[in-house]
């Protein structure tokens, strides 16, 4: 494809919503839309996405990178508008009793917008995964084989109260040659409307199809349901959110799903751990941004470790509520305020300033506790014992295993992926933070000179 080629004039979908409706009750001209109308509308969006995906799949790296930088520039130029839209969503969420953790995820700030712009620039600097040769060989009969990365096609994402995901997923999808359909939920409706409009206008400004980014937010929950059933029109669906949302998508989708999971994240402190390091890591892993999925939710402390009092006092000084078992309570005594823990605590992803704490007598006991309660996201060990570190790595089966560092590093940007679609806790195709390569599949290219099979 050369830049002299001009994409077909895009059909601009109504990203602002149809006049007179709420996101969960779509209407047109004051008349409620029937399920059949919603299905037709969403299918039309998906068909336009498929057409746009064919164009994106042929765009070269320079063209796609120019689009990413145009989006970044547009975000800076429209920062005030985006923040005003976001303030409306945050105010509505606060009035509706949204939890502090979800409000934090919902909120955009100038610094967070700067972070989105930086992530787009990082994406532009990364190699294009499309066309990468995974493996290749020449067979004895002379056939030349290559397995290469190619775009998925049409990627759909269903998420909630996370407007940053709108930009992250769109950027990753575009760089990997895909089109994307977004369902960002009613909580962030105003913010997502502003962001989608910016994304589409930026694509159009560089000669790429605006329909490479579309949304079904204007069709509410029924639109999401149609999207989940649009097998053949949508190639892959990625849910990102809490347990209920993810399980709803996994259970009801006819479209192949890459499952992102909740983060019941563990840190185990063994008896050799350094106190200063343990305090610094626990504070970062729990308090830097407690509402996100890579925040530690359970701390396991070896009975022979000496760091517990210092770690507990440091966490309490930052407002963390410690939900502890009887042995931890006895070890801390009255020096540190705690509350009793039960089985619900070991299973809970708090997404807040709460931490479950248990005492164990061995690495094996810590591993067994993690195996019982893990969601397969991220687990970490703090240790100065190499054998313990290697045993922990070998026996913990999660998407990310960390030694002597904060669990907050389980993040696409932090791991050099530019951004992430989400963190997959499944074991098929993609696992852990999903970046550009995870939004591609492969195809085999077989080149011959008249060979036939005998």
Automatic annotation (TrEMBL):
Aldehyde dehydrogenase domain: residues covered: 39-315
Gene3D superfamilies attached to this UniProt entry: Aldehyde Dehydrogenase, Chain A, domain 1 (3.40.605.10), Aldehyde Dehydrogenase, Chain A, domain 2 (3.40.309.10)
Superkingdom of the source species: Bacteria
Metabolic or biological pathway: Amino-acid biosynthesis; L-proline biosynthesis; L-glutamate 5-semialdehyde from L-glutamate: step 2/2
Enzyme Commission code(s) on record: 1.2.1.41
Class of the enzyme per the UniProt entry, highest EC level: oxidoreductase
GO molecular function: glutamate-5-semialdehyde dehydrogenase activity
CDD domains tied to this protein: ALDH_F18-19_ProA-GPR
Location of the protein in the cell: Cytoplasm
Ligase among keywords: no
Keyword annotations from UniProtKB, A to Z: Amino-acid biosynthesis, Cytoplasm, NADP, Oxidoreductase, Proline biosynthesis
Region annotation Disordered: where it falls in the sequence: 1-32
Reaction(s) catalysed by this chain's protein: L-glutamate 5-semialdehyde + phosphate + NADP(+) = L-glutamyl 5-phosphate + NADPH + H(+)
Annotated family: Belongs to the gamma-glutamyl phosphate reductase family.
Function as written in the Swiss-Prot or TrEMBL entry: Catalyzes the NADPH-dependent reduction of L-glutamate 5-phosphate into L-glutamate 5-semialdehyde and phosphate. The product spontaneously undergoes cyclization to form 1-pyrroline-5-carboxylate.
Protein name in UniProt: Gamma-glutamyl phosphate reductase
Gene from which the chain derives: proA
């Amino acid at each position: 494809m050369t830049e002299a080629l001009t994409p077909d004039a895009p059909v601009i979908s109504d990203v602002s919503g149809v006049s007179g409706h709420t996101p969960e009750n779509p209407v047109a001209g004051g008349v409620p839309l029937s399920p059949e109308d919603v299905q037709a509308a969403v299918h039309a969006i998906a068909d336009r996405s498929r057409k746009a995906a064919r164009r994106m799949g042929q765009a070269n790296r320079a063209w796609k990178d120019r689009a990413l930088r145009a989006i970044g520039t547009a975000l800076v130029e429209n920062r005030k508008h985006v923040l005003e839209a976001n303030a409306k969503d945050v105010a509505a969420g606060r009035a509706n009793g949204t939890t502090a953790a979800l409000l934090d995820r919902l909120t955009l700030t100038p610094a967070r917008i700067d972070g989105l712009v930086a992530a787009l620039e990082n994406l532009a600097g990364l190699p294009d995964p499309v066309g990468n040769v995974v493996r290749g060989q020449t067979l004895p009969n002379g056939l030349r084989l290559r397995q290469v990365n190619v775009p998925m096609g049409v990627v759909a994402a269903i998420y909630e109260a996370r407007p940053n995901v709108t930009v992250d997923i769109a950027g990753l999808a575009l760089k990997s040659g895909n089109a994307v359909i977004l369902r960002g939920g009613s909580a962030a409706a105003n913010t997502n409307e502003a962001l989608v409009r910016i994304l589409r206008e930026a694509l159009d400004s560089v000669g790429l199809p605006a329909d490479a980014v579309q949304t079904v937010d204007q069709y509410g929950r029924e639109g999401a349901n149609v999207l989940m059933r649009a097998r053949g029109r949508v190639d892959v669906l990625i849910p990102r959110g809490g347990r209920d949302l993810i399980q709803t998508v996994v259970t009801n989708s006819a479209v192949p799903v890459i499952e992102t999971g909740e983060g019941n994240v563990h840190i185990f402190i063994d008896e050799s751990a350094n106190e200063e390091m343990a305090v610094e890591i626990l504070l970062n892993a729990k308090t830097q941004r407690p509402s996100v999925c890579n925040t530690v939710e359970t701390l396991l402390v070896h009975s022979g470790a000496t760091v517990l009092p210092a770690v507990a006092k440091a966490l309490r000084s930052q407002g963390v509520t410690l939900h502890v078992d009887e042995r931890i309570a006895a070890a801390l005594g009255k020096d540190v305020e705690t509350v009793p823990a039960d089985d619900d605590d070991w299973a809970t992803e708090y997404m807040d300033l709460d931490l479950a704490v248990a005492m164990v007598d061995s690495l094996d006991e810590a591993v067994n506790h993690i195996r019982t309660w893990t969601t397969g996201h991220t687990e970490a060990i703090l240790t100065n014992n190499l054998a313990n570190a290697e045993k922990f790595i070998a026996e913990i089966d999660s998407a990310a295993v960390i030694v002597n560092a904060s669990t907050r590093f389980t993040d696409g940007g932090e791991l050099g992926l530019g951004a992430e679609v989400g963190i997959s806790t499944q074991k098929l195709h993609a696992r852990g933070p999903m970046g550009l390569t995870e939004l591609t599949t492969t195809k085999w290219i077989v080149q011959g000179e008249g060979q036939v099979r005998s």
